[in-house]
Design goal:
Number of domains: 1
Number of strands: 5
Number of helices: 5
CATH topology: Rossmann fold
Strand order of the largest sheet: 2-1-3-4-5
CATH architecture: 3-Layer(aba) Sandwich
Largest sheet: 5 strands, parallel
Oligomer: single chain
Order of helices and strands: EHEHEHEHEH
Shape: globular
Radius of gyration: 13 Å
CATH class: Alpha Beta
Length: about 130
């Protein structure tokens, strides 16, 4: 497989195992390659540095580093400039969305979501090669 035809690599992070499972289903349905699943922001950032994914799906509120903190670190790393960041949050107010975008999120989705809906959104954001 050539570099241009590989599937987008994705790292997901959420402190809720059920949400991680739903996001993993969506990543699979979108045709992407799930390279790491983290339960907190610290693990997520380590996985991002290790795998250099094309997309990261982050929960806003996690122990250790929050999704907002991880997003800021990714955005401050020139080597990760092209990494798409999708934020997930139970908070649906405009202030929460603004905080996500200010931290560097490419897209913001509210919980709850269906894996099918999330897969469609992920595919729209980054079509599989």
């Amino acid at each position: 497989m050539t570099e241009t035809s590989r599937q987008p690599r994705v790292v997901i992070a959420d402190d809720d195992a059920d949400i991680r499972a739903l996001v993993a289903i969506a990543v699979d349905r979108a045709g992407f390659d799930l390279v790491a699943s983290a339960e907190d922001g610290t693990q997520a950032y380590a996985a991002i540095l290790e795998f250099r994914p094309d997309m990261v799906v982050l929960d806003v509120s996690m122990p250790g580093m929050t999704g907002l903190e991880v997003s800021r670190l990714v955005r401050n790393d020139i080597a990760l400039d092209d990494t798409m960041i999708v934020m997930l949050s139970a908070a649906v107010d405009e202030q929460s969305r603004d905080a996500g975008f200010e931290a560097g999120a490419s897209h913001f989705l509210s919980k709850p979501f269906s894996p099918r809906e999330l897969a469609i959104r992920l595919s729209d954001l980054m079509p599989a090669s």
